[in-house]
């Protein structure tokens, strides 16, 4: 089955090395970035400023990666390594390297969406933007978080700080 994707824009952020980029947007809420949407898609940003948060879906692959292992040691478990099934992680090493970042909308101006919550390197391609809607995206009642409940989540932590 074919699944064509179109890059709609790129992010502009401070980090240029994945090892120095926070592992999740929620762990780096203060750093700001920008999404520069291609001119042909700029009209799609209309009304986005009516939302506090959006999901940015990014392409994290360079096109020449080998198929990743189905069990990996996630960044957050590097201090105490343990293999976890790929689908139980948010690792960028995936069969389809699609990133998912929940960011806070600061403003939309023209074809630029300014946001807080950087977890992508400068130049990361964005394949979609979707509004965060608590009624749809926030489960009712308590939710389990598997192995992540066992790790300490520190603001701004990067893969480089967690070791290789």
Automatic annotation (TrEMBL):
Keywords: S-adenosyl-L-methionine
Residues spanning the signal sequence: none
Top-rank taxon: Bacteria
Pfam annotation, one family: TrmO_N
Start and end residues of each TsaA-like domain: 5-141
Protein family (similarity comment): Belongs to the tRNA methyltransferase O family.
The protein's name in its UniProt record: tRNA (N6-threonylcarbamoyladenosine(37)-N6)-methyltransferase TrmO
Provenance organism: Kibdelosporangium philippinense
Gene name of the encoded protein: tsaA
């Amino acid at each position: 089955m074919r699944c064509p994707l179109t890059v709609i824009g790129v992010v502009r952020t401070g980090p240029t090395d994945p090892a120095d980029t926070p592992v999740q947007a929620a762990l780096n809420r203060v750093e700001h970035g920008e999404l520069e949407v291609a001119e042909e898609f700029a009209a799609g940003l209309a009304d986005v400023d009516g939302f506090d948060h959006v999901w940015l879906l990014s392409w994290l692959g360079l096109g020449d990666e080998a198929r990743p292992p189905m069990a990996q040691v996630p960044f957050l478990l590097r201090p105490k390594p343990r293999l976890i099934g790929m689908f139980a992680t948010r690792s960028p090493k995936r069969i389809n390297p699609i990133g998912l970042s929940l960011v806070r909308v600061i403003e939309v101006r023209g074809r630029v969406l300014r946001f807080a919550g950087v977890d992508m390197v400068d130049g990361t391609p964005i394949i979609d933007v979707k509004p965060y809607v608590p009624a749809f995206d926030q489960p009712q009642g308590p939710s389990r978080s598997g192995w992540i409940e066992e790790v300490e989540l520190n603001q701004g932590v990067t893969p480089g700080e967690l070791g290789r």
